[in-house]
Specification:
- The structure is a single chain.
- The protein is 19% helix and 33% strand.
- With 180 residues, the protein is of the alpha+beta class.
- Strands 1-8-5-10-4-3-2 form a seven-stranded antiparallel beta sheet. It has a three-stranded antiparallel beta sheet with strand order 7-6-9, with no helix packed on it.
- The protein is globular and about 40 Å long.
Length: 180
Amino acid sequence: MDYIYIPVQLDEIILINNIISDEERERLIEVSKPLLVSGAELGRMYGGADYPGNQTLSNLHHNPEFDYLHKEMLKCIKKESGMDLEIVKSWVNWTDGNKKDINWHLHHCTYACVYYMKTNPFLTSGTLFDLVINKRKRKKFVKGSQNSLMLFPGHVLHTAPSSFLRRDRYTLACNLEFKE
């Protein structure tokens, strides 16, 4: 994938914990499961390579089942960052740590976020980023626990990490823009 590298510092990534109740989080995982589409099918739908793992379509912000989560995420982002953002795309990802699902990518938006719906309880969860640390470009794993949200500039390369233990990992990703 072609991209323009724009340096991002570690402090530009914001982690917000305890977004919703465990009961609501678990309910949303169950609601998500029948909406997941294989990565191969998404590749065929969008005329490109296979997507990693399984994903829903990117219109979950229009699904009433996810209203509460989206509202809570935006409220927490505004409280922690002062930014008044809106969701333009939202989707759930499922992976199990398989190396074949490593997919370095960026989002074509001002900010992106990932909400950790279900993570591996035996390993530290989070996202692997391509960052600038001490004026040098480096890969950096940034920890994010289950029921937390990570906000970052949309142009930074990142991927779900691989894991030697195969465990379900559910995340909800969003593309965000400033409200007009």
